[in-house]
Please model this.
Amino acid sequence: MTVHADLEKLICELVAIESVNPDLVASGSGESRIAAFVAGWLEAAGLSVSFVEPVAGRPSVVGVLRGSGGGSSLMLNAHMDTVGAGAMTAPFAPVVSDGRIYGRGAYDMKASLAACMITAREARRLGLRGDLIVNAVADEEVASIGTSAVVERFRADYAIVTEPTELRLCLAHKGFVWLEVETTGVAAHGSRSDLGVDAIAHMGSILTGVLELNRRLHESPRHALLGTGSIHASLIEGGQEMSTYPARCVAKLERRTVQGEDGASTLREIEELIGSAEATARVTLERAPSEVPADHGLSLAVAEAAQNPVIIGVAYWMDMALLNGARIPTVSYGPAGEGAHADVEWVDLASVEKCERSTYGRRSSCATEGFTSPLARADFTSPLAGALYLPAR
Ligand SMILES: [Zn+2]
Model:
């Protein structure tokens, strides 16, 4: 089978297995079925396969292609879950047309998963010294329980998150902090202005402060790839009925962060903004930003393997931060397409081939295409030394 047909077939098989995240859409199947498929496929390709299932029904699959020893290890990470089908007509019946594959998850990110799987199968013939580790993870679209659990059990020297980046090399992404602010008033009959204290109106001054803080953040020094942090209100709730002073109001805020900002620092900002008002603030969820320097060996190696792609940072959060947080230097590189989380989703097949061939590596296509795949270099000593030209550790 040609590279093209091989990849196309596997992407379609993965799209056809519904794996909607059940924490987004209650009727979603989760990852059990697709994990069984991926595990069986990787096993047949000669990898040693384990399931990591911190929550029943939400398995991740880890396939390890053991090296002969002494080389660096490389993790390729792709998530198996998707968002819901929205208004798509046939979300799980993939359509191939004009070099594109349409279907829910084709772009985000079953095409990347297919590229990682085929890379692992092809790499088996290369006699690598280091381990190549494929992570097919659960729950990236909600709480990332998959990658969180995998990094507790598996180590690697380097990792590539294969999220679709339009063939650009992503070195950094923002983090976020969710905060809750609660103002306290005094409930009273609406006519008793002598007794009532209006918790909702008091939230007003805090929200004005949030607008002002957002403006200041946009004027603060900019991170070269990420710009500045930001803050906005997402949800607000308060009061019980007309003609009653509201005793309580809660606003839920989202603070997007860059390097140097975290839960503690953003909570301090909100506390300063509250000042002496009758209000409390707390952090309800925190996800760190992520960055690998442009001159890090991994960044240089992927840039070279991918033939000098555009370097980017992205504003949204992804699993890169969890891997970097586990001290596995991680960048992101993946195919092109459109419609992640939208009603028409497609991936550009040629870009998936380029990922599979150049960064993740493939031997079979090189000779015919006059292209030296990194993994195909004769002198590789490990996935990275071979795939990404890094010296073995
Ligand atoms: Zn994704």
Notes: The longest strand covers residues 175-184. Residues 199-219 form the longest helix (21 residues).
